[in-house]
Task: structure prediction
Amino acid sequence: MSTLALKNENKKTADKHPLPHLSGFGRVLPGLALTGVITALALWLSDIPALSHLGLSALTLAIVIGMVVGNTVYPAAKPWCEDGVTLAKQRLLRLGIILYGLRLTFAQIADVGATGIVIDALMLCSTFALACWLGQRVFKLDRDTAMLIGAGSSICGAAAVMATEPVLNAKAEKVTVAVATVVIFGTAAIFLYPWLWHLNAQYHWLSFTAAQFGIYTGSTVHEVAQVVAAGQGVSPDAENAAVIAKMIRVMMLAPFLLLLSGWKSRKEVQQGGQNAGMRNITIPWFALLFILVAAFNSLNILPHNWIPALITLDTVLLAMAMAALGLTTHMSALRQAGLKPMLLAALLFIWLIVGGAGINQLVQHLFG
Result:
């Protein structure tokens, strides 16, 4: 390559990123600093009695502040902050979930155990089947869009949508629509579920303990981050049970993708196409590491004076992930998704709340 051509190529690369002279940590620093400032503000506000009595935890406040900033001033700062915000939303969230295992023991996980597995399996199968039927038969959506929305609603939100995309070989715009519905209704769940808990405590509609309500939350709310925030808005017992139930649900992603890939391969063969074989399968390693950390914590090897510091670090990491999630939640997603996908996602959301409550009560009664 000539010197002139090399200069032109370097200029193009520089134009694509506002910080071309930085690499590695330098590029993620502005975004991490922004999420850090939002986290500090959320932690400070969460200590105000008037807000804490409303059930507004640090994680909830972090996502609210993030959404306000994300829909006002953040677009102007996005070119500088995007790398760091993405790192917080993805890697810091996973690290926070892994460290969350330090709050739990294997005895607590065993308490959720078989009940959580049965509830999660029933919710996954019923929600995905309902999405496929409603999406294609009622709303006349294409198969891929219905399945992507179903995967996001039934398993683990945007991560499930992104993992399902290569199996279906779906178009990018369909993935964007599915992710938008997950973000909208999953964010609504953060505020709705603590409210439902308090209403149920007042009117005694269903016989939920805090831990059982946590299992209900973990088995029906879309994203891992949203489950953590919703559970924290109820109580520590609910939060712990919610995270355990959600991690069981997340680990069901791998067998779900294997079954879906096998089904699609058979369909291709039946339709006279060439069998593409098994596609790349995403294994949620962070969920497995969460279980290992909880098992390690059960052995009481770590010095007890380390645990509070590590839990504080975990809260900060999760709050930064919430802030990043809020920064990337845009009101324009409502318009982008369109009416039919939004209606499908809304009906699935109602099923997760109402049908999920029924399934949780039934299974917990049978296993009780």
User: Anything to note?
Assistant: Residues 1-7, 9-15 have pLDDT under 50 and may be disordered. The radius of gyration is 21 Å. Residues 189 and 221 are 7 Å apart (CA to CA).
